[in-house]
Specification:
about 400 residues, alpha/beta, Aspartate Aminotransferase, domain 1, Aspartate Aminotransferase, domain 2, seven-stranded mixed beta sheet, four-stranded antiparallel beta sheet, 15 strands, binds D-malate
Amino acid sequence: MARINDNYLKLQAGYLFPEISRRVSEFTQANPDATVIRLGIGDVTKPLVPAVLKAFHDGVDEMADAATFHGYGPEQGYDWCAQIIIDKAYKPLGVELKTSEVFISDGSKCDSANILDIFDISNKVAIGDPVYPVYNDTNVMVGRSGELNSKGYYEGLVYMPCTEENGFNPEFPSEKVDLIYLCFPNNPTGTVATREQLKAWVDYARENDSIILFDAAYEAFITEEDIPHSIYEIEGARECAIEFRSFSKTAGFTGVRCGLTVIPEELMGTTATGEKYSFNKLWNRRQSTKFNGVSYPVQKAAAAVYSDEGWAQVKEIIDYYMANAQIIREGLTAAGITCYGGINAPYIWLKTPEGMTSWDFFDKLLNECFVVGTPGSGFGPSGEGYFRLSAFGDRENVETAVQRIREKWGK
Ligand code: MLT
C-alpha cells in the first residue's frame, strides 16, 4: 500500500476557513431564519468592474475565432501582461523590473505555498504569530517542522510574535533563519510597515543571508502616504526578497484567479556544493514544469485593471471597502472595543470584549448577533484574545453588523 505524507497528520484538523464554514452552516441549518452577515473570510463581494469585464469578454471572444485563438501560453505569463504590471504597478513606485522577473500565476496563495519547491528542506523558516495560515501549514506539509507543541507552535519553525506591545510588527527572529515570511499590509492584523521598519528588515536579511518572502496581496488598500507598497522600494531588496502580489482583493479576482510573483535576477542561493545559483532560474524551471500559465482571457482582464478606466473603477471599489473598514473600526471603538488595522488594510483586528477567548467570541457573535468573523487564535497562539473582521461586505450588511455588535457590547 502507498505511504501517505505523514506530515499532513501533524496539521490541526482543518484549515481555518473551512472550519468556520462548517460552524456557520451548522448554525444556519439550526436557525434557518437568522440573517447571517459574513465578515469572516476576506472574500470580495463586489462584481468585476466594467473595464475588466469587457477585456475578459473580448479575450473569450478571441478564443472563439481560429485567427485569434490562443492555445498554451507562456508558463510565466504573457510579456505584454507583465509589462503592463511593471509600467503601472511598479514604475510609479520607482521600482524597475524586467518581464523575466515577473511570473504571472493563478494567485498568491498558491505561489506562497509553491515557492517552497525551490528551497532545500534544511532551510530554517521564520513566520509571524499570528500569521496567514498558509505559510505555517505549507511548511508543515513539506516536512520542515516537527509536531505541534502544547503552546500551539510547530517544533522546528521559528515564530515571530506580533503583539499589541510591538504594534503587531514581527520581532526579528530569535535565531538565525534562511527564510522570513513578511506580509504587509498584514493579514490578519491589518498593520503596515513604515519605510524605516521595512528597511530594517531588508538590512537584517542582507546581514544574515536570509531571504524575505514578502506578501503584498493587500498593498492596494494602503491609504496613508509614504507607506511602501513594494519591498523593492527599499534599497537592497532585490538581493534578498521575493514579492507576491494578487488581483484577488485588489480587483475582485478571488473567483477569477490571478496573481504574480517577482523574483529579481540578483536573488541567489547556494547549491549543496556552495556555488551560487539564481532563484529566478529555479522558479522559471518549476513553473515551466508544474504550471501551464494563466488563461489568456484572465490575463486580458488582469491587464485591464491597470488601464486608466479600469484603475479608476477598481479604486472606487477599494475605497468602498475601506469606507466599510472605517465604519467597523469607528463603530466598535465607540462600543468600547479596542481595534487595530482597518486604515491601510481591509481587516480590523479587535481585542475580544470581556477577555473572551477568540472562539468563544466567535460563537457568541454568531449565536447572538448572527455575525461571522475569524477567531484570532486561528492565526496562531498570539492571536488568542483577538478577532478579525473583514471589510469586504455590502455597506448595509456592514452597518447592520456594527449595529448588532454595538447593541450587544456598547456602553
Ligand atoms: C483571508 O480571509 O485571510 C483570505 O481571504 C484568505 C486568502 O486570501 O486565501
